[in-house]
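Milestone 3.1: sequence recovery, worked example.
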């Protein structure tokens, strides 16, 4: 715990003096507005400014002047600015302080004649942040040209913390409830919120609003030394509690969540974070207010980046800050877990991984987030725990009341709020049917995937977290056809060394219990950026510096991964494949690096993998034109249809508007894939397919008809695909495909569907 020791208290800085005076006003008589009037006068005097004004954010993104010292009193409640308008609006829009020696020369200066502010030249303002949102702006102005120091900005930020609580406590900020709810009419009506899919599945239950935020009673502290001691104790307690939360008892017998939780724990132990909280305590805040201030700063800073990794880390810090505050206030308990409904739909602005685990996962039917990204820790965990999550649903917290019935449809990225009886019934039936089907798949897991006419199809899973490995056995898959090794890299704040990687691969192989695992080497880059990677701001990241391109450009990365894999195999079988291979030369270069590592291990006298199989992913169309040369060199090929189709049609795989436009069952895709199978047959090399289409029964049927005998799919699809295979008469399908009559349009979907219906194929 040495790294968490707070710095020694220093002499009282300016902010502590000002805070003490603000606290006296808060403790004194009067309503919120009259207190704000006194506070602006105190701030102006203390900071030697002629003007101090407080703007409060109202509904419709309006900033209303609420109190001023120095501007004309009649402007109060009259002067309004839109968020983004003027310098004050800019501060609110960017959640960032602004200090300008010559404010009037700034292009964003918005003059309001009623304020009489034309005589003030310099201006400094900071956002009033609460709950990660801008609740207002506090600004000072000076007649003469003045350069505000960083310390002065910091002081005003500290005061803004206290103002945030006052504004919220006085009920003057935000929208009136009728404004948010559109006159109250929407509150009662069923409606639908659209979002993005963060974890698939469907769930229905009662809304529980996740509001970890506790109202802080005490913001200003007399004795910094005592606050430092409180912080130290609370941090130690929090670490103990996190250890308990993550303990095996809580998470089941395996250590599957380790990748995510280890990264989270590292953030919790971040000495820089604690140092900044200590500094805020020195500024005169209580430990809990200091935690909140630092959190506000982090949120404001990181939220500016449009980067899923950084945004995910904001959620982690939020989670930790809330946790630490609860420890400081002695409010830590399983309070959220008590009196929970049987079926919970959790509604939150954002969630950290530990916050998700605070809720009893056996009751969690779904999660709705106002923010969130697919690579956020909470999304990775929810996927592994099979809890549907819809993210980026604007205003979920404003539109959903505790106790509302909610349906989370992760598959279709939508949330039904207070659905009517019919909709509830329909979803209820669908959810029950799903659960029954799932139980059936688990029951039939030992039945092999053999067609009616006796052809055995290999059904593998795609995995990326250790937790996925459980599904391998639960659904009776044959092995792991694609292990996406990048996920553990993406969730770590630093590049994992060889030993860390090796330990992870050893655990994966142990959990596979002898079933084969194909490790795909790192596919980072593009949109899957790790924090320690060079960021080049590419315009087309999917076609940029990613995957094998990174590995060949910085071979040490591939060398280390290869070494870790070889050592993990410990003399047993090792299957490795390289992603995004565009030319045979790239495959050769990657394979050479792997072989050099083999030689290195041999020289060191360590056991070598036996057998070793080295394959390539076929997901860049250029490689189709070197297929024979590739098949002569690669031990196997796996078609990555997600990327192959994206590049074949030049159609972004994650663009929602394009998803329907190009059908994977179009003649040209079927021809392309059929040619790949024929080439592999000629070369006597195994070929599989591991894109999403392998997990859809109709598409999988077509693939088997084309000659694929090895499919790799997301674990929940294993059951349906095995059922489809067992109901399929492959000879009939092959004959049908030979005499195929294309239907209208550029798709053979309907014709294939008709075949399935006529031949009793279970789709
Ligand atoms: C693919 O591109 O089809 C594939 C399986 O790889 P990923 O989805 O990880 O890019
Ligand atoms: Mg791919």
């Amino acid at each position: 715990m040495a790294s968490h020791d707070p710095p020694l208290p220093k002499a009282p800085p300016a902010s502590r003096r000002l805070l003490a005076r603000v606290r006296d006003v808060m403790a004194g008589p009067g309503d919120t507005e009259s207190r704000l009037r006194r506070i602006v006068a105190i701030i102006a005097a203390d900071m030697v400014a002629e003007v101090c004004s407080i703007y409060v954010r109202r509904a419709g993104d309006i900033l209303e002047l609420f109190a001023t010292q120095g501007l004309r009193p009649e402007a109060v409640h009259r002067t309004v600015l839109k968020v983004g308008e003027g310098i004050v609006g800019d501060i609110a829009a960017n959640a960032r302080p602004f200090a300008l020696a010559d404010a009037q020369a700034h292009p964003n200066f918005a003059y309001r004649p009623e304020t009489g502010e034309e005589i003030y030249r310099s201006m400094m303002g900071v956002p009033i942040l609460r709950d990660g949102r801008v609740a207002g702006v506090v600004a000072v102005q000076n007649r003469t040209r003045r350069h505000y120091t960083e310390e002065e900005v910091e002081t005003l930020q500290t005061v803004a913390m206290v103002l945030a609580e006052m504004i919220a406590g006085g009920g003057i900020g935000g929208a009136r409830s009728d404004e948010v709810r559109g006159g109250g009419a929407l509150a009662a009506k069923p409606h639908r919120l659209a979002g993005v899919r963060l974890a698939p599945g469907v769930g229905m239950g009662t809304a529980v609003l996740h509001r970890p935020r506790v109202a802080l009673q005490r913001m200003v502290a007399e004795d910094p030394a005592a606050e430092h001691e409180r912080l130290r104790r609370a941090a130690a307690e929090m670490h103990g509690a996190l250890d308990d939360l993550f303990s095996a008892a809580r998470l089941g017998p395996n250590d599957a969540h380790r990748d995510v939780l280890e990264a989270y724990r590292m953030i919790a132990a971040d000495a820089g974070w604690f140092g900044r909280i200590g500094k805020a305590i020195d500024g005169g805040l209580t430990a809990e207010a200091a935690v909140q201030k630092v959190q506000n700063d982090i949120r404001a800073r990181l939220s500016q980046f449009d980067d899923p990794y950084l945004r995910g880390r904001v959620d982690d810090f939020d989670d930790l800050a809330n946790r630490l505050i609860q420890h400081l206030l002695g409010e830590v308990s399983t309070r959220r877990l008590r009196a929970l409904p049987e079926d919970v739909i959790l509604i939150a602005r954002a969630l950290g991984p530990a916050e998700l685990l605070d809720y009893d996962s056996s009751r969690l039917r779904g999660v709705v987030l106002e923010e969130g990204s697919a690579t956020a820790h909470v999304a990775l965990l929810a996927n592994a725990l099979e809890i549907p999550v819809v993210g980026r649903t604007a205003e979920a917290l404003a539109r959903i009341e505790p106790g509302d019935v909610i349906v989370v449809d992760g598959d279709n990225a939508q949330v039904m709020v207070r659905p009517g009886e019919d909709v509830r019934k329909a979803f209820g039936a669908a959810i029950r049917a799903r659960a029954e089907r799932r139980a059936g798949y688990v029951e039939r897991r030992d039945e092999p995937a053999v067609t009616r006419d006796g052809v055995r199809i290999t059904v593998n899973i795609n995995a990326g977290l250790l937790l996925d490995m459980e599904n391998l056995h639960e659904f009776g898959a044959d092995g792991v056809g694609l292990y996406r090794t990048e996920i553990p890299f993406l969730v770590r704040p630093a590049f994992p060394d060889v030993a860390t990687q090796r330990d992870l691969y050893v655990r994966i192989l142990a959990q596979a219990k002898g079933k084969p695992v194909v490790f795909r080497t790192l596919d980072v880059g593009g949109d899957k950026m790790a924090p320690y990677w060079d960021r080049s701001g590419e315009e087309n990241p999917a076609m940029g510096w990613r995957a094998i391109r990174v590995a060949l450009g910085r071979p040490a990365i591939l060398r280390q991964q290869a070494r870790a894999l070889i050592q993990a195999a410990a003399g047993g079988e090792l299957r490795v494949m390289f992603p995004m291979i565009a030319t045979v030369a790239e495959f050769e270069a990657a394979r050479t690096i792997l072989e050099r590592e083999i030689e290195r291990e041999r020289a060191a006298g360590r056991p070598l993998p036996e057998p070793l199989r080295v394959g390539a992913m076929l997901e860049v169309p250029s490689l189709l034109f070197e297929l024979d040369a590739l098949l002569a060199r690669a031990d196997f090929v796996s078609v990555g249809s997600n990327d192959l189709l994206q590049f074949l049609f030049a159609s972004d795989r994650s663009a929602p508007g394009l998803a329907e436009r190009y059908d994977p069952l179009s003649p040209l895709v079927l021809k392309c894939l059929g040619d790949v199978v024929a080439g592999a047959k000629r070369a006597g090399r195994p070929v599989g397919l591991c894109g999403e289409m392998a997990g859809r029964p109709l598409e999988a049927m077509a693939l088997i008809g084309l000659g694929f005998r090895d499919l790799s799919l997301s674990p929940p699809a294993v059951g349906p695909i095995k059922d489809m295979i067992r109901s399929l008469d492959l000879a009939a399908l092959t004959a049908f495909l030979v005499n195929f009559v294309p239907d209208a349009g550029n798709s053979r979907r309907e014709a294939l569907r008709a075949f399935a219906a006529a031949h009793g194929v279970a789709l």
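The pocket of magnesium ion (ligand 2) is lined by residues 579, 619, 640, 642-643 (CB under 6 Å). Residues 156 and 642 are 51 Å apart (CA to CA).
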